[in-house]
Amino acid sequence: MHGGAPAVAEVPAWPLADPHVWLALQAAFADGSWGAYQGPQTAALIERLVELHPTTHVLLCCSGTYAVEAALRGLAVGPRDEVLLAGYDFPGNFRAIEAVGARPVLVDVQPQTWS
Fold first, then answer.
1. What is the rounded CA–CA span in Å between residue 84 and residue 64?
2. Which residues does 30 contact at the CB level (< 8 Å), separation at least 6?
3. Which residues contact 13 (CB under 8 A, 6 or more apart)?
4. Contact in structure between 100 and 70 (CB atoms under 8 Å)
5. pTM
6. CB hemisphere CA count around 80 (13 angstroms)
7. Looking at the predicted structure, is the pLDDT value of residue 62 above 90?
8. What φ, ψ does residue 9 adopt, rounded to 5°?
9. Where are any strands of DSSP class E within the chain?
10. Which residues have a Cβ under 8 Å from the Cβ of 56 and sit 6 or more positions away?
C-alpha cells in the first residue's frame, strides 16, 4: 500500500501440492462422485469434522457465500440488524447479509494489515 515494502517476499504457488489431496481427487473422479453434493466422501468428511470440533451438527456448503448466509441465519441475524464489514470485502458477503434482510455496514480497516 502506498508503495511500501511487500508483506511477503514471494506468493506461494496455489494450490499446494499434496499427495493426499491428489489421491482423493483421483478417487472422486474414478467413482463418478466428482462435483456431487452427496458423494461417498460426504459422510466421512462430516464425521471427521465432528471429531475435530466440539459440535454435533455440521453443514457442508457449496460456497463460502452460502456458508456466511447459513451462519447469519444460525445466529438469527435479520431485518433491522447491522453487520459490520471491512471497507474492502468480497461482494458475496454483502449479498449474504442482504439475503437475511440485514444491513451491511462498512468500517475502516488498518492500512498496515487490512484488519
1. 17
2. none
3. none
4. no
5. 0.65
6. 0
7. no
8. -70, -40
9. 82-86, 103-107
10. 50
Q: Partners of 41 in the beta sheet?
A: none
Altogether, the residues listed in the chain come to a count of: 115
Q: Which three cell numbers stand for residue 91?
A: 461482494
> Is-contact 101 95, C-beta < 8 A?
no
**34-to-48, 51, 73, 76 alpha-carbon distances in Å:** 19, 24, 29, 33
| Grid coordinates of 28 | 472422486
pLDDT in tens, 20-42: 989 988 998 998 888 787 888 88
- Whole-angstrom Cα distance, residue 54 to residue 59? 14
Q: Whose CA is closest to 80, among 103, 57, 61, 63?
A: 103
Q: Which of 1-5, 15-19, 68-72, 88-92 has the highest mean pLDDT?
A: 68-72
